């Protein structure tokens, strides 16, 4: 289990994908409820102010997006030079 991905796939890092950065920024902006009226706590959803629900959902979306990028879009196999080949 030294490798998590096949050597056949090219090296790919999602840090270079601008749409991923845009998605992360959008989720963060939605999660910080600066766009809501100051001091607003009503309506209540499930016994908590609605801005708490908005922040919790945005946090979950952020975690899902980062997890998806790491698990399915990132080829973490290093080149032979970095993998500790011949020294």
Please supply descriptive tags for the structure shown above:
membrane; transmembrane helix; two-stranded antiparallel sheet; 2 strands; Solute:sodium symporter small subunit; mainly alpha; 44% helix
Helix content: 40-55%
The backbone outline, from C-alpha atoms, is elongated
| Structural class designation | mainly alpha
Q: Give the uncertain stretches in residue-range form.
A: none
* Sequence of secondary-structure elements: HEEH
Mean pLDDT: 79
Q: How would a crystallographer describe the biggest sheet?
A: 2 strands, antiparallel
The fraction of residues in strands falls at under 5%
* Rg value: 20 Å
Tally of extended strands?
2
How many helices? The count is 2
Measured distance between first and last alpha carbons: 22 Å
Which sequence of strands runs across the widest sheet? 1-2
Keywords: Membrane, Transmembrane, Transmembrane helix
Protein name: Solute:sodium symporter small subunit
Transmembrane segments: 20-38, 50-71
Describe the SSE topology.
Elements: H1 18-31, E1 44-45, E2 48-49, H2 50-73
Antiparallel strand pairs: 1-2
Tell me what you see in this structure.
- The mean pLDDT is 79.
- The radius of gyration is 20 Å and the shape is elongated.
- The longest helix is centred in the C-terminal third of the chain and has 24 residues, at 50-73.
- β1 (44-45) and β2 (48-49) form a beta hairpin.
- The chain contains two helices and two strands; from the N terminus they run αββα.
- It has a domain at 14-73.
- It is mostly helical.
- The chain crosses the membrane at residues 20-38, 50-71.
- Keywords: Membrane, Transmembrane, Transmembrane helix.
- It comes from Saccharopolyspora flava.
